[in-house]
Amino acid sequence: MKLKKPLLMMGTLALLLVVSACGSNNNATQGAGNSTTETNKEVALSGSILAVGSTALQPLVEQVGQKFMADAKYSKIAVQVQGGGSGTGLTQVSGGQADIGNSDVFAEEKLKDADADKAKELVDHQVAVVAMATVSNKDTGVDSLTQQQLVDIFSGKVTNWKEVGGIDEKIVLVNRPSSSGTRSTFEKYALGTKVDDIAGSIQEESSGTVRKIIGETPGAIGYLALSYLDDSIKSVQYDGVEATVDNVTAGNYPVWAYEHMYTKGEPNEVVKAFLDYMTSDEVQNGDVVELGYIPASKMQVSRDVDGNVTKK
After folding, report:
1. 104-116 confidence digits (pLDDT tens)
2. According to a count of CB atoms within 10 Å of the terminal CB, is the N or C end of the chain lower?
């Protein structure tokens, strides 16, 4: 009978240990559950993005911006897209008026000399390649022009289509303003030189309006991104080479440029989400190709800021 009390105490102690252990396990499990819940809980990004600049890039940014905002994950982010030309885009992103500066040219090509330090502050995000084609009214009678013929036309030395093998029709120049990245690309890689504005020539920034003017004006000539080509105008070959995606990617057609979306410093998480979406496989193999741009990954050659082209 004297042994009953110690045995009872030992049993009680064992029971307390079991209960304590169970409690500890329950607390540990509950804690892990809270941690998992917090880990899985995603805070939806919210804010606004203003992208300004290149009208050549504008259709792609606008279309992708609409899809981005329609995605439930980014429904609290508003994307606004404005044109104005590459110079405007670079100036505004550098000055903090825009979150993204869309440009057809490297920042170092526009922001130089006294503005060179501004270019160093910008981060380059290359989202596609755009090729430019010389385009004319459909009734000029000319299908191909050499580099020298283009220089003579855009410098005003040649003023009638019959001088380059076409019909007897006055040439009407449709040029871009000096701030245009499309003009910079055309002068650099098609003409090989800058040209002064010719008195009487038409100046228009909007690519859509340029296409309309050339299609409706007898004798008109200008240049457009491939994404704007349609049956209302004629695409003129360059030195006998047609402006096609295959010729561009292989390095056989020289009039092309990267499409840049510059940010001032590294982008914040909202802007980064949009840029990541822009370079996703879905957009690169879908919207980019659909709108006539070329995914940068498809290029078999690369080009640096000085215009040097090398095989990949």
Report:
1. 899 998 898 889 9
2. N
The pTM of this model reads: 0.76
